[in-house]
Specification:
Blueprint: E1 2-3, H1 5-11, H2 18-23, H3 26-34, E2 52-56, E3 62-65, E4 69-70, E5 78-79, E6 88-93, E7 100-105, E8 111-116, E9 126-129, E10 134-138, H4 139-142
Parallel strand pairs: 1-6
Antiparallel strand pairs: 2-3, 2-10, 4-5, 5-9, 6-7, 7-8, 8-9
């Protein structure tokens, strides 16, 4: 389901608090709270090829696995599906005179990036995600950080 902005506000909302501002870098805050976009090819995860999972920068919710990451040539981390479709919501984005589909983290409400229909099989989708919205947890750290149940995805 693709939500309108109004519907999305009823499902998830990010509170732009001072606590959150203190937790995040200015760039992370701008992206996660204000839906900004980081520069392509100038972000830490676009060319990360390590095995592991990508989690929400705000609350650690598992979002994407390295097994679904691919090189889209766009300069941002791209995935053909999330770990759990219920962990993200899709929202109409009509900013800048375009129609796009915004991807948000359902639990935290943070802006992750956008969804496009030009990805590889098996889904044909490209979740184009800002590095600043994610933390990467390498396979060797997953058990210790509480993500051991997701090791089978890798």
């Amino acid at each position: 389901m693709i939500y309108t902005e109004k519907q999305a506000a009823e499902v998830c909302y990010i509170e732009p608090s001072e606590e959150l501002k203190a937790k995040l870098s200015p760039e992370e805050y701008s992206i996660l709270v204000n839906a900004a976009t980081e520069p392509p090819f100038d972000n830490p995860l676009w060319d990360n090829h390590r095995v592991g999972i990508y989690v929400d920068k705000i609350d650690g919710t598992p979002l994407f696995a390295s097994s679904t990451k691919f090189d889209s040539g766009t300069g941002w981390p791209s995935f053909w599906q999330p770990i759990d479709q219920e962990a993200v919501i899709l929202v109409e984005d009509r900013s800048y005179g375009m129609f796009r589909i915004e991807v948000r983290s359902k639990k935290s409400g943070g802006h992750l990036g956008h969804l496009f229909d030009d990805g590889p099989e098996p889904t044909g989708l490209r979740y184009c995600i800002n590095s600043a919205s994610l933390d990467f947890v390498p396979r060797e750290d997953m058990e210790a950080k509480g993500y051991g149940e997701l090791l089978s995805l890798l």
